[in-house]
Amino acid sequence: MSTANSIDPVQPARLEDRYFINEAILRWCRGVDRKDWALVRTAFHPDAYDDHGMYKGDVEGLIDWLVGRHPSIAFSMHSLCNVLIEFNGEHKALAESYVVAYQQYLPATQADKSTLVAALGEDLGSREGPVTVMIPARYVDEFERREGAWKISRRTTVFESRYLLDTGGKLNLNPDWAVGRRDEQDPYYRVRKRFYAT
Fold it and tell me: Residue 1: its pLDDT value, please?
């Protein structure tokens, strides 16, 4: 089914709206990857609904689910790709975003077994070594502008596939490199602190 008639041409008056919608999606990506749950919360209206496959419900429940799930994930990176936005009036928008998520799950001996099995299945969730997966997906986000702020009011995560990348250990990185972390010691937060101190 073609949606060509319903897609708005890119009008200069809408460029700012598109920017703020895209920023909300990016806040989600960074928030999850850095386990910055307060940042994740800023992408959604408080009464938003999220269908994330394994979780379906409100935003506070989503964050509780993420907080419980991510201690079993050693590495997470969401790479945002195509984002197509269309508008329905002044205060509603629909965004379809392509995303590729890379995640490495800890070995079963170091993680919550039920979390691993729910995400990976019984076989992979029981392995002794870490498991790395690549997940191509799409976010179908219904946005509303309320009190001047564009945020997600309803999200449906559409899973396209899942690929097993690795079941062995990761290669060691040079200790002189800036290495990503999933907390406030991540290089981004250290640079940001210095940036605002000057």
Answer: 53
Cα 29 to Cα 79: distance, rounded to the nearest angstrom: 8
User: What one-letter code names the amino acid at 84?
Assistant: L
Domain 12-197: assigned CATH number: 3.10.450.50
Residues written for the chain: 198
Q: Which residues of the chain have pLDDT under 70?
A: 1-10, 166-171
Give the integer Cα–Cα distance in Å for 141 and 81: 15
H-run or E-run covering 39:
helix 37-41
pLDDT in tens, 44-100: 999 999 999 999 999 999 999 999 999 999 999 999 999 999 999 999 999 999 999
CA pair distance 52, 129, nearest whole angstrom: 26
Whole-angstrom Cα distance, residue 122 to residue 135?
Answer: 18
Per-domain boundaries in the chain: 12-197
Identify the DSSP state of 116: H
